[in-house]
Amino acid sequence: MQVKKGDKVKVHYHGKLTTGETFDSSEGRDPLEFEVGSGMVIKGFDDGVTGMAVGEKKTVNIPVEEAYGPQNPEMLIDMPKDRFPEDMQLEVGMPLVMSDPSGQQFQVVVVEIKEDSVTLDGNHPLAGKDLIFDLELVSIEGGSPLIITP
């Protein structure tokens, strides 16, 4: 049986950047469980497991367009320094949480500290990056087995 759209699968994975740096892994945890084609994972990951059989291992290279997309320059926000608490020690690379006008929270990262303002990046941390995943298919649930009768 091979993975197809609509199947629920369990996958062990090791995610790396093209530099070889690991950004996430299921090692030491339960495998990732999701429904193929439902939008629960990035397109390249969905496409990568499609067609795999239980126990199969493979490496998939996922281009930016099938991962988290390119960096969006509109997600760079210049925030006046006086909008931050006085006692906050800002550092480049520091993650912060912001709220949009509707109260929805999202993570930003400090990318530059200027004299009167701080530049925050609201892009996904993996936006603009090609990704590499080592995959191992643990199980497939769903899909109807082919029944042949005389």
From TrEMBL:
Pfam families reported for this sequence: FKBP_C (PF00254)
Main location: cytoplasm
Top-level lineage group: Bacteria
InterPro entries for this protein: PPIase_dom_sf, PPIase_FKBP_dom
SUPFAM superfamilies cross-referenced by the UniProt entry: FKBP-like
Transmembrane segments: none
Broadest EC class assigned to this enzyme: isomerase
Domain PPIase FKBP-type: 6-100
Subcellular location: Cytoplasm
Entry keyword Cytoplasm: yes
EC identifiers of the protein: 5.2.1.8
Reactions performed catalytically: [protein]-peptidylproline (omega=180) = [protein]-peptidylproline (omega=0)
Keywords: Chaperone, Cytoplasm, Isomerase, Rotamase
Family according to the record: Belongs to the FKBP-type PPIase family.
Main function: Also involved in hydrogenase metallocenter assembly, probably by participating in the nickel insertion step. This function in hydrogenase biosynthesis requires chaperone activity and the presence of the metal-binding domain, but not PPIase activity.
Protein name: Peptidyl-prolyl cis-trans isomerase
